[in-house]
Specification:
Strand content of chain A: under 5%
Shape of chain B: globular
Number of helices of chain B: 7
Number of strands of chain A: 2
Order of helices and strands of chain A: HHHEEHH
CATH architecture of the largest domain in chain B: Beta Barrel
CATH architecture of chain A: Up-down Bundle
CATH topology of chain A: Fumarate Reductase Cytochrome B subunit
Number of domains of chain B: 2
Oligomer: heterodimer
Structural class of chain B: alpha+beta
Strand content of chain B: 15-25%
CATH class of chain A: Mainly Alpha
Shape of chain A: elongated
Chain lengths: 185, 374
Amino acid sequence: MTGQQARFSAPSRVIHWLMAVMIIAMLCIGVGMVASVSERYKVLVSIHKPLGIAILILVVIRFLNRRINPPPALPDSLPPVQRVAAKASHILLYVLMFITPLVGWGMLSAASYPIILYGGLHLPSILPHDLALYALLRQLHTYLAYMLFALILAHFGAALFHGLIRRDGVLASMASWRRTEPPSE
Amino acid sequence: MPKDGSRDGPAAKGALTSGDALVRLGAIGAAMLLAAVAFAYVGGWLSPGRLTQDRMAAALQEANGIHPGFRLNHAKGLCASGWFDSNGQASTLSKAAVFEPGRVPLIGRFSLAGGMPLQTDSPGTVRALALRLTPRGAEEWRIGALNIPVFIVNSAQGFYDQTVASTPDPATGKPDPARMNAFLAAHPEAVKAFAIIKERPISTGFANSTFNGLNAFRFVSAAGASVPVRWSLVPAQAFVAEGTGQSVPADKNYLFSDLIAQITEHSLQWRLLVTIGQPGDPTNDATLPWPSEREQIDAGTVTIDQVSSEATGACTDINYDPLVLPSGIESSDDPILSARSAVYARSFTLRAGEQHEKPPSAITTQGVPARGKL
């Protein structure tokens, strides 16, 4: 490891990796449960709802954290196309992380299902009971989840590209946990 | 600090040879592919043999035909409304608000088993009553109950196999007896269940039918004690055995027509009886009856005072998912509950998207006269 390099702040790194695990688990639970008729179904559904709300809360915290602890700048050597792709994909990641659970909540509301987090802990309905609206949101929820998965896959590939091909410190800025050394000119 | 742009440039590490870069690119591609394949595996796309919601839905459509906008099962039905008067007796066993003394409004649905929305009413067809009880400011409870004493199968696979076996053969228009025999050979629990079901007394209509919840659940008290339970809706209307003398009615909706006529005269009532299981009573197999001497608690009375066509009734937009339970009532280890919840969800999603192309239900608004009182 050479030289000083700007890293994401510790809170940013913690929330990134925490949400990475939660979202990947969430996507797998989602596609797994809608395919299942086994006893797993009810277990997965009971995890999916509170986990989705936890992600929704965390993404709001994460957005605020990003204002307080802005991410480090991308390396100057990065070609403009990749710079634009990085910027756009991150905006889209945030949008999807926020919208997907929100649409899930809205979809359960429109179906008039209770939104149970745990035991007697419920969330209020945020939309009127409306079958056509439910059908629309239910489909949208799936599409958003697929888009989120595809984007996470691209993000994963791009991170590896930075780490293995470009070796420009971008991967380490999020993936490195070593102690920060005092800058040495 | 954030804008210092001091991350290492590629030059810092020395250039990769093109062969090296190719190997690394390949590794990245392989890692991404692996992640995508794992996701596809979890979603069931790589295992066509897995019993999924899609396969279950397809089997039901194969057996019953495709009827846009209708439920995949229990497609023929009538909405109902009324209330539940809880007497408080079940509140020692379950902390659910619905069991505190008082009145709880409900939206119900009477239906016939089967995915054919225009099927002809027949005495032997399984009848159902579904209820959604919504205590004010508290958690709701959804119930589905059938007029048979036990369920026919004890697993999702069993239900699938039964559906496939009872699918009409295109050549004869009837189920293939060989397939039905193969199903019974593979599912001895269904043979025993059919024997019990065959013995049941069949009443003249919905109003004097006993509807049984069949699947076991658990009641949890305020102190945290959990007991296995099954419940039944026992009619206040006197039992009259079906088919004593009369010929089969000409009205193909006679069960529903009779119900509508009765409701127009007076409200109908059922007592909600909760049977308490003992250790050793099967909770994971709804084909097995519990001993008849088990203690029963009368939790209160369900009153139905209005019915309406699915075109205007509130039941149409409700998924009577048996796992919509308040705290104080929990699912058991019965795999059928999870399977019902899953397949109902799929059916609900399908019909929600098909509302615009749904033809009228068998019981139309014209079939339900406006009711004067209340």
